[in-house]
Amino acid sequence: MESALTTNWLVGYLPNSMGGPFIPVNQTVGYLARYPLPMAARDPEATKARIFEAAVAEFARHGIAGARIDRIAAEAKANKQLIYAYFGNKAELFAIVLERKMLHLAEAVPVDPDDLESWIDRLMDYHADHPELLRLLFWEGLEYGSAELPHESDRQEHYRRKVAALRDGQDRGVVTDAIPAADLLFLLTALANWTAVVPQMRRILVGEEDTDRDRLRASVKEAARRLAAR
């Protein structure tokens, strides 16, 4: 009599732990017991998290065109086919990575029109601790220019909420309404971010000692205060 291990059949496809991208699962449970599925197939959320972190590092280092899915897969210890299954093509993966990183920034450092200097402080601290985000944004700018972005409607909604926070501050009279809220947000973030984007210019122009950086930060906050003052 055949055992249950040789009579229980499954239907579908699963990642192949023996080297190929996929195997048809018209194999017996006994075969699967001999050749267990890799951890990637057993814990998809952990695999997605590893792929995401590997993609952040790869895109920040090489941009969209220079990034390689093979390197992301190797770093994440994941089957390359899983990356396409979970995230789509390379451009889609980049868009997802940047969207999630920007969402994290929005949650960690919300725009605060009532205390713009503190917001500038926290924004500069965030980018010092997470330099990959501005690198991703610059790669996006270099590769897309002014062309429409993947998931652009999501990006617009992301910024719409930030602009609304500043516009509320304008309506309450805590920041100037002489500059449209969207323009003001663009100018304030440029002030806060530029020092992290071009550290070589900061070093040459301002200096690289701690006192130089403290002075520059104070200058950035003063410029932001004056820009937004009523």
From TrEMBL:
Q: Which Pfam families match?
A: TetR_C_21, TetR_N
Q: Where is the HTH tetR-type domain?
A: 45-105
This protein's UniProt keywords: DNA-binding
DNA-binding region residue numbers? 68-87
- Top-level division of the source organism's lineage: Bacteria
InterPro entries named in the record? Homeodomain-like_sf (IPR009057), HTH-type_TetR-like_transc_reg (IPR050109), HTH_TetR (IPR001647), Sco4008_C (IPR041467), Tet_transcr_reg_TetR-rel_C_sf (IPR036271)
Q: What is this protein called?
A: TetR family transcriptional regulator
Organism, scientific name: Streptomyces levis
